[in-house]
Amino acid sequence: xxxxxxNHDLNTTTEKxxxxxxxxxxPPFLKQKYVPxxxxxxxxxxxxxxxxxxxxxxxxDTLAKYGTFGVNVFxxxxxxxxxxxxxxxKVTYKSVSLRNFYIRRFLxxxxxxxxxLAVLFALNFIFKLNLSAASFLRPLFFVxxxxxxxxxxLAGHFWxxxxxxxxxxxxxxxxxxxxxxxxxxAIALIPGILVITYVYFHLHTNLLIVDFILxxxxxxxxxxxxxxxxxxxAAIFLCKYEHLFILKSKYIAxxxxxxxxxxxxxxxxxxxxNINSTISALFIALSIIYTIVNKEGFIFQILNNKYVRxxxxxxxxxxxxxxxFTFKQPxxxxxxxxxxxxxxxxxxxxxxxxxxxxxxxxLKLKARFSxxx
Length: 373
Known about the structure:
With 373 residues, the chain is mostly helical. The protein has helices at 3-15, 38-55, 61-64, 66-93, 98-126, 134-140, 158-177, 179-202, 208-221, 225-241, 252-267, 275-293, 298-303, 306-313, 315-321, 323-326, 340-367.
């Protein structure tokens, strides 16, 4: 190699650091048919959500708050998986079809979400629930995260779906166009969102237009986007440096448990400007990464057990329907209408039927627009 070539290589490295560069080849974890352990984490998340929502019936605040933790795990998974798949498509085909991306997202999320709203609309009349028009319009247009949850509605859980949909509207464009610009934007946004959150809760100007703009910015960015971005950046980091996360140790399962325990710890402890949620998300992401890459240990075996994976497969269906069965059941005044066991059985039947008899039709359509296998 000549001195000229050496200097050229050094200049290239300086101008385009590896972390900010495009991914040029598939990492080993993306060469598999599916990413291991993710369905297991989804199963773990939906169990936390169910426990939290059931605990509302008993005014148990200790358990109730972990529903949000479960949703945060979903957010990290969502950012991680969407980014991984977009990178996989970009590496394989040298471009990303945003048209196909949005069609896939539409077919996965909207059919069962709108079916739930249709059923809720019917139940509103049958049981005279007196739900307002806004209770349907906000989830219908995926802006439930802008709603006032002081009086929780039966479609209140659409707040997390709204956050995800708003993420999909903006950030995939950046990933498809320039990974470097996306990484810079994400890294800048995460602390920026912390500042926005702090200002929103502590600054009141009494100027209507200023407070309105601050309210819109907070609800658009401050209710989960930073958590999704952590998962997204974790995917990019794993795509580039998978070898750094491989551990040859008989204690790998204990290490994975420690990471999740730390994520619980920081989630449960308020820190300056609510930075605890971001730190918690970071440990969730690390737990996911180390469980994907390291296939030894009982944690990997549990998360990839076929029954646990099946529960993870059903997790979206369960999340959509669970609000009717966990608390504030429309039929609570009927005999055994508020029985936890009976309602959980009905939820299981509903979720399985929804997935196999309804959602699978749209999943087959979705597969036609898949550009990566």
